[in-house]
Design brief:
Structural class: alpha+beta
Radius of gyration: 12 Å
Oligomer: single chain
Helix content: 10-25%
């Protein structure tokens, strides 16, 4: 099991979760943050610090946001992010790209 970042993170990107992640598996896209599922160690450190309650264990993602589990995984492809599993977000830095569904997501504001 891994953790998934969902819709409430779009256009927020608070980064509290990034500071708490002991394995540096939370990457910054253009509009939201993404968890690299192969790097996540399921420690749950990110979940309680998210101010918008956007992070869930894979099995606990609310039904309305289930599509974000594959969105997080698919972000890490050569076609979208330009990399697969680089071994740490700090090495990569912010990426000015998003999964196509996130890029097209209508802003609430």
């Amino acid at each position: 099991m891994t953790y998934t970042i969902t819709e409430p993170c779009i256009d927020v990107k608070d980064r509290s979760c990034v500071d708490e992640c002991p394995v540096d598996c939370i990457y910054e896209g253009g509009r939201m943050l993404y968890i690299q599922p192969d790097e996540c160690v399921d420690c749950a450190a990110c979940e309680p610090v998210c101010p918008v309650t956007a992070i869930f264990a894979e099995d606990d993602v609310p039904a309305e946001w289930k599509e974000f589990t594959p969105i997080n995984a698919e972000f890490f492809s050569e076609d979208i992010a330009g990399f697969t599993s680089p071994g740490g977000a700090a090495q990569v830095g912010p990426v000015d790209k998003d999964h196509p569904k996130v890029a097209a997501w209508e802003s609430v504001a």
